[in-house]
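Section 3.1 - Work completed
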Amino acid sequence: MNNPTTVTELMAEAANALIRRDPHRLEELERISRGWMQTRDEELAQIILLQAMAEAADLLIDTSSEIESA
């Protein structure tokens, strides 16, 4: 997997990780985004979003996605 370098790539990768029910990738994306040059507000928004997505992925781990082909 490639590391995203833009917010667009980060969001696309995060969506795919949630579809795959992959909380570990979402945690990795959180670590990646923490190293970006951005405002504190942007960083906090991304961190909260990725943490919520990781929690959702954990809760949905045994449920298949209707959009797995993404």
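Second construct:
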Amino acid sequence: MISEKLPQNMTLKSWLALVILAISTFTIVTTELAPVGLLTPIAEGLHSSESAVGMTVSLYAWVGALSALFASVFLGNVAKKRLLLVLTVVLMISNILAATVSTYGALLSARVLGALAHGAFWAMIGATAVAIVPARYIGTATSIVFGGVSAASVFGVPVSNYIGIHLGWRQAFWLMAALSVVAFVGITVLVPQINNKSAMGIDALKRVLKSSTLWKIYFATLLAVTAHFAAFTYIEPWLHMQSLLSAAFVPAVLLVYGIAGLAGNFLTGVLIDKYLKMTVALSVLLICAVLIFLGRSGSSLSVALIFTAMVIWGVAVSGVFVGFQTWVLRMAEDKTFPASALYVSFFNIAIGIGASVGAWMVSSFPVPLLYIVAGTAIGLSILLVAVIPASLTTKHSRVEKSYESN
């Protein structure tokens, strides 16, 4: 139960609160992925290797996955606004530390601190958005807030890369610290007090773990997101391999990818209510095709084809990110809190595995082979997508409930 009745009408303050929550999710996910666009400068600045810097993404993801589960089980009774504020401060401190470190070990420590806030924050943010809007605006609220996650996933890396090249990699983390301050002030002023004590804890999590449908979504997410991040974590080195692409154009390529991702997020929002399964399936197949194409294209791909491939990849990855998240919320019924937390855990585990596999492959094999393997892997996730129901029908709901009661 929400301690306050849901508002009956949307106010300007409610809309602004959703925007602030979206900015918060953008900040926290961009913090997670920032090293992807800064592999080379961070490695040079800390006298480390690109694969080692890539592992900071993996570690962040794994700690975030554990943090999300911890939050769903043990922090359900904590006032959400107060907890969001504390987590935002922790994120700010993490970014300040990352901007000022002088050793690789110190960077890892700063990243672990941020990851602790990341998992808990992401696990509760959707429920917070739902709690501050009328019931008929729940879909809109969710799309706005998780739009920040999607935007960060596809736009945060090129922004970090651009700042890293022109101002230095440390300035990218200072920007994330500044955005954390903006989020803190916005949450303080705009987000109402929310105390939620339902659908949390061990029992609720056990109910989620008994849902065969949710497990299929989680495994499809694990496979698709692992494959995507194995390739995307090392997009910068792949672009630098292209003989026809000037190094000065790398930020532009990543920027176009980010813009395409934002467009894909909008397109997915238009299609997903009616065509959820088709949208996810098509997105998976498009990424599969692009990655295999990039892996087999050699080092002399034309600039036009590079930009085209990145546009398709950016649009399609939004369909995957938003699609699987929406699928979980659609199938979770009254278990949205623990179901979302578990989804966050699988998503972050996938990022960690993807970055780790990518690090191993680029240190042992040519980068193009990584793209072929990643494309094949994400293509295999279509087998799971094919057997997941598009919606929770009455018959299916009865079967799930019967299974949960056993």
